[in-house]
Amino acid sequence: MALFGFFSKEKKETLDKGLEKSKDSIFNKLARAVVGKDTVDEDVLDELEEILITSDVGVGTTVKIIRRIEARVAADKYTSTGELDKILREEVAALLSENPSVGVTDSFETEHLPKPYVIMVVGVNGVGKTTTIGKLAHQFQQRGRKVVLGAADTFRAAAVAQLKLWGERVGVPVIDHGMNTDPSAVAYDALKKGVEIGADVIIIDTAGRLHTKVNLMNELGKIKRVMQKVLPDAPHEVMLVLDGSTGQNAVIQAREFTKVTDITSLAVTKLDGTAKGGVVVGISDEFQIPVKYIGVGEKMDDLQVFDREEFVDSLFKR
After folding, report:
1. Range of the domain at 85
2. Any binding-site annotation on 126?
């Protein structure tokens, strides 16, 4: 499924390459599981269950997939191991398609969105949060959108400096008050600036640490309340950035953040070079929150819109 040209041949090749290690890991394990077997029996399904769990799909999601495959095998009576690849691919795609919040989503096409559209970005240090914001700013700008960034991660000097570097690189204004300043004041000024210059999109970076849940909840709550003094319905989106290469750690982080604030979208980074790409399937299924973007490379355009059909195709095709 192509969307606004996102899945050009080049994009698809990047996605295929980015998920190569995950795909190879799954299929190598699957090949070993079916050696010497002609039909999909209980032993093969047990092996498949272990393969999916060790590929970071997650226990709950794996159980759902296995039950679906069991039902198909029972109905067919004789399912060859050669068909297992195809069945697995179909059932993962079907599972994702039944999640109403997951599919082709795109904030780059902003005509139907409030103006300015405010995205508050959350996530722990090291997941690629600031890089994701920079790449988003670049891609919005490439589509003719006017962007303002707010450096509200004021607890880490490197975070402010890094966002300012991205602003210079991409050519978008960055509102900052330096380190150890009030994050909500930065967010307030970023929104004021955005309104003043007629920005289409305002992206607010926030502190990247999981300290106590109460403190995190209070801090994010205060940022929201202060932003609402400028725009009563802000933020329009709260995006959680997760590092896909950490596998189940990413799932744990998602659980923690969803407990303390309303997460409305996910970006899963660093999927290139890891065999843990299956975590996207588990996260999509468990949290019922749209995975909007996935990171499959270092280039600006390697932050891709998540399309479940293209993702499953790349993850499971031979």
Report:
1. 9-97
2. yes
Is 129 marked as binding a ligand? Answer: yes
Q: Is 128 annotated as a binding residue?
A: yes
The count of other CB atoms within 10 Å of the CB of residue 244 is 28
CB 127 within 8 A of CB 212: no
How many helical (H) and strand (E) elements, i.e. helices and strands, does the chain have? 12, 8
Length of the chain: 318
Average pLDDT over residues 195-216: 85
Question: CA distances (Å), 249 to each of 193, 212, 220, 252, 283, in order?
Answer: 36, 18, 22, 5, 11
Asked if residue 39 belongs to a known ligand binding site, the reply is no
Instruction: Consult the annotation and say whether 247 binds a ligand.
Output: no
Q: Do 123 and 80 reside in the same domain of the chain? A: no
Domain boundary among 64, 97, 130: 97
Q: Count how many domains the chain has.
A: 2
Rounded to whole angstroms, the Cα distance separating 314 from 92 reads 12
State yes or no: 46 annotated in a binding site.
no
Q: Domain end: 49, 67, 97, which one?
A: 97
Element (H, E) at 20: helix 20-33
Q: For the whole model, what pTM was predicted?
A: 0.91
On whether both 89 and 157 belong to a single domain, the answer is no
* Predicted confidence (pLDDT) per residue in 236-252, tens digit: 999 999 999 999 999 99
Q: The domain spanning residue 176 has which CATH number?
A: 3.40.50.300
**33, 127: one domain:** no
The helix/strand/coil state of 110 is: coil
Are residues 266 and 301 both part of a single domain? yes
